[in-house]
Amino acid sequence: MRHCLLVVSLFGVLASIGPAIGGESGSAIFRGMRASDRAATIAGVPQTGLRCSGCHGRDASGAVAGSAVIPPVDGRTLREPAPTRPAYDPALFARALRDGLRSDGRPLALAMPRYGLEEAQIDALWLFLSQLEADERRGVEAGRVRFAVAAQPGNREEAEALRLSLERAWRALGSPDVNGRRAEFVSILADPASRAFDDVFAVLGSEPGTAFGTGLLDALVAQGIPVVGPAHLPSRDRERLPDVVWLTPGESALADFISRNAGTLRDAGDRVERHATSARDLAAILALPEADLAGTSLIVSIFAVKTPSDLERLAEAPAETLLVRPAPPFASRDELADLLASLVRDGLAESGRDLTRTRFLEAVDRSTVGIRGRSAGGGDGPMSSDDVDLIRLRPARR
Questions:
Q1: Does the structure show a pLDDT above 50 at 374?
Q2: Residue 270: which domain range?
């Protein structure tokens, strides 16, 4: 039951900080944090789920996709004239987004979406692209790079303990100066009223075994701050948060585990067995009359539980309930710190002297491949019974 209380308190934290520090900005628009709320078309066909960074890159530097060359759209490139077009200004930029016309009036490629953005959104996007080059190097100085552990209300002591473990792990590596810079580790309270993360290069980790929290992750990714660490989040959150390097499995891996092992997970007996591996499954089960739940065995993925009231209703249901969640992938805080410190060192080394958030994130993402097998990089491969925690809820006494 201790674990259940931790989950309840976490949802309370997210409810208090998520909306307040999220908000829409040019960065959030570019990274598609609310793409489904925006009208976009390609060749006149309505589209959803688009994000500028998906084609132009998280640093807007462009890409090559097959035979197509996707141009850079960072502020410096847009503001400077090119041999084939004049410079963009805010008005021409808005016309390109809405009407698909280049700065010289010729049509953009047919694959370029046409967006129904409001004027304030276009202004925010232009401002973001104008300062993106500086944002990519936030937290980087001549002799140091600043990394943060994000503390939420209620876990400040745990965050500070992880910071101290990171410092110990960095010393164990010889306190290296990588390309002339040392890593500096700080813990920062995720206060909605502050801009404490403005001078942070990347955010590392969370307390082993606890969810990082989608509200905080949304806010960090919307600001373009890379995140590296364990996070028990649904697969859909992993897909929409590309600036995060995951170190634990996600929803689909746990759902597959439940499907393969349901018979051995439930209590012995002749009870009817029901599974809930998604929020929709759980809502359907909890909508059943109590008479239909009595004498049943419920096997519920932690990812299906979205609110504290879900847990309360499960605890009150007249059914044997088994809550299944990924186990902490690290034996201790020090083990997590050792891995994070190594990833920081290797990521800084591979990124080179011209350090940017994008280069670091890509380097760390590559270096996690093969580390701890399934757990690294958010792999969703097969899980075993050693990979999960089982929390049993007995039927409420009537």
A1: no
A2: 251-328+384-393
